[in-house]
């Protein structure tokens, strides 16, 4: 039965050799330095978020883009109608002038 058991951690102990399970003060200085760095990073993140929030006020929303798209489609349709009408009118006037001149 013992031949079916394999040790997965390679025989190394789970805790370092100097770990006694006592308080020993820990490494609070390192922790304090790390917390100070995180606080500095947090300040920079706040500045970045405030900048992005201010810039995002001028961004176009989906509704704005859709409104502009609708307006452009209406204007293009109107322009196309006027262009077609003008071309037909010019053709009619040209035919009338040609008939008058050439008989």
UniProtKB/TrEMBL annotation:
**What residue ranges are annotated as transmembrane?**
82-102
Give residue spans, biased composition: Polar residues. Answer: 1-10
Keywords from the named record: Membrane, Transmembrane, Transmembrane helix
Per the record's keyword annotation, is Transmembrane helix included, yes or no?
A: yes
* UniProt region (Disordered), positions on chain: 1-25
Protein name from the UniProt record: Hemolysin XhlA
Q: What is the organism of origin for this protein?
A: Pantoea coffeiphila
């Amino acid at each position: 039965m013992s031949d079916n058991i394999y040790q997965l951690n390679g025989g190394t102990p789970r805790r370092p050799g100097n770990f006694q399970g006592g308080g020993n003060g820990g490494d609070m200085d390192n922790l304090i330095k790390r917390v100070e760095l995180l606080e500095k990073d947090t300040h920079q993140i706040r500045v970045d978020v405030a900048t992005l929030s201010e810039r995002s006020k001028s961004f176009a929303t989906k509704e704005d883009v859709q409104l502009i798209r609708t307006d452009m489609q209406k204007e293009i349709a109107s322009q196309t109608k006027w262009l077609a009408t003008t071309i037909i009118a010019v053709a009619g006037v040209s035919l009338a002038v040609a008939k008058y001149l050439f008989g």
